Amino acid sequence: MGQTVRIDVQLKDGSRKAYFKKYGKSPVNKYGFPVTAHLANIGNDNSWSDSWEEWYARALKRMLEEEEKSHGPDETLARVTVAMFEKVIPRLLRPLETGGRQIQPCLIHSDLWPGNAKPDAVSKEPIIFDSCAFGGHNEAELGPWRAPRYRLGRSYMKEYHDHIPISAPVEDWDDRNALYAIRYDLLVSALFPNEDSFRRLAMDEMRRLVDKYPGGYEAFETRD
Fold first, then answer.
1. Rounded Cα–Cα distance for residues 212 and 86 (Å)
2. Is pLDDT at 12 greater than 70 in this prediction?
3. Number of Cβ within a 10 Å radius of residue 60
4. Neighbour tally for 156: CB within 10 Å
5. SS3 for 12?
6. φ and ψ at 164, to 5 degrees?
7. Where does the pLDDT of residue 24 fall: very low under 50, low under 70, confident under 90, or very high at 90 and above?
8. Lowest-confidence segment of 12-21, 55-64, 194-203 by average pLDDT
9. 80 vs 162, residue with greater confidence
């Protein structure tokens, strides 16, 4: 109970983060950031990109490389990774910026979990810190919230989307969130080389998405 109350104090106001996403726009209208930022001790490749699909694929590749350094190679993970980059990422992220749909790069904290948010000692207003900032798709901010280990989840996401609508295609939202969450499961796996559960969690989700989208973006384009 104490943990749940503590999180509620820190992150209860989704409108604050929605405001941050609405007004914290990328100054160059590109995805990325002018300097390297870090998730724990792992540096992001924040090179500028005109495409969210391109930027996120690069970021996920970087995290997979770090995770492999920590746990060693795995043939199954290698196979599913190929399909992720060839099929799943194009299928879930390319539609955000094609077919007349658009998203705008906005400033993202990108490491929002209860350990990086505390109430001010005097005002009790929530303060967030220790960011790994970059300009990206605002929904990527919600990737860590999917993990049960942080005791956040759907109610917090609903509050957020009460202030900022879900990006189109709306029907892809849950799987986009799963794709964004995989990067954080790989991060935690990289940080704990003696713990295999986070690699298994990431691989299970990757396999689910690969099985669901065997036709990739081409199947989306030709759907009825």
1. 13
2. no
3. 19
4. 20
5. coil
6. -130, 120
7. low
8. 12-21
9. 80
How would you classify residue 113: left for phi > 0, otherwise alpha for psi between -120 and 50, otherwise beta? beta
- Which contiguous run of DSSP H or E holds residue 118? strand 117-119
**Which residues, 6 or more positions from 128, have their beta carbon under 8 angstroms from its beta carbon?**
109, 112, 116, 117
- pTM here is 0.86
- Checking if the pLDDT of 146 tops 70, the result is yes
> For residue 214, how many C-alpha atoms fall within 13 Å in the half-sphere facing its CB?
1
Q: pLDDT value at position 224?
A: 57
Residue 185 DSSP one-character state? H
Do residues 126 and 11 touch, judged by C-beta distance below 8 A? yes
Angle at which helices 14-23 and 154-161 cross, to 10° = 50
Please tell me the distance from the alpha carbon of residue 122 to that of residue 129, in angstroms, as a whole number: 17
Name the least confident of 13-17, 79-83, 131-135: 13-17
Bridging pattern class, strands 134-136 and 106-108? antiparallel
130 CB neighbour count, 10 Å cutoff: 14
Residue of 186, 170, 178 lying closest to 210 (CA atoms):
178
Count CB neighbours of 182 within 10 A: 23
The residue written with tokens 């990739």 in the block is 216
